[in-house]
Amino acid sequence: ETGVTQSPTHLIKTRGQQVTLRCSSQSGHNTVSWYQQALGQGPQFIFQYYREEENGRGNFPPRFSGLQFPNYSSELNVNALELDDSALYLCASSASQMETQYFGPGTRLLVL
Amino acid sequence: DQQVKQNSPSLSVQEGRISILNCDYTNSMFDYFLWYKKYPAEGPTFLISISSIKDKNEDGRFTVFLNKSAKHLSLHIVPSQPGDSAVYFCAASYTSGTYKYIFGTGTRLKVLA
Known about the structure:
The complex is a heterodimer of chains A (112) and B (113).
Chain A: E1 5-7, E2 10-13, E3 19-24, E4 31-37, E5 44-50, E6 53-57, E7 64-68, E8 74-78, E9 87-94, E10 102-103, E11 107-111
Chain B: E1 4-5, E2 10-14, E3 19-25, E4 32-38, E5 45-51, E6 56-59, E7 62-67, E8 72-77, E9 86-93, E10 102-103, E11 107-112
Parallel strand pairs in B: 2-11
Antiparallel strand pairs in B: 1-3, 3-8, 4-5, 4-9, 6-7, 7-8, 9-10, 9-11
């Protein structure tokens, strides 16, 4: 059974650019949640997708957007990057909305 | 407003002894709690969870205790092993609305051989 995978592992962008991060959910999981973890902090919830629909959003601006595909993989898009967007972005999948979330290794984004 | 707090940023314990990691929360609507372990350059790994209808849950060397009246939970690791050295996050959620997790800021555990 393959776990949650994320790509790329690391990324460097400059302010104002756009970025797309990808996540493949664990086999049999239909729910994907995205979190941002800044240095020294715990992960903060960005949004969740359940069966291709957004199912809740945290306190993040609209320039953070996402998609979930029919195979339940997901993308996180961030437009107009700011320096404060530098963080580890974590994707978690679960068998359903209320099941335990299992995390991928994360994508480390650096915005210069 | 930090709804989930881990007030000890770090903890050192001798191998073989008990490690106790603490977590406090402010939102009485939380009804499900989890602990994750995180090694550098890896994502958080699920350890153990507890529903608010219970006050204790055990899984091998790991036990989580929940005190709802004090809004406090703790993770006990017995016996502690050097491989347990990692950052531990507690998380809380509620089963209404989006089932999102609210995380604490983590406690770095170092188990000394």
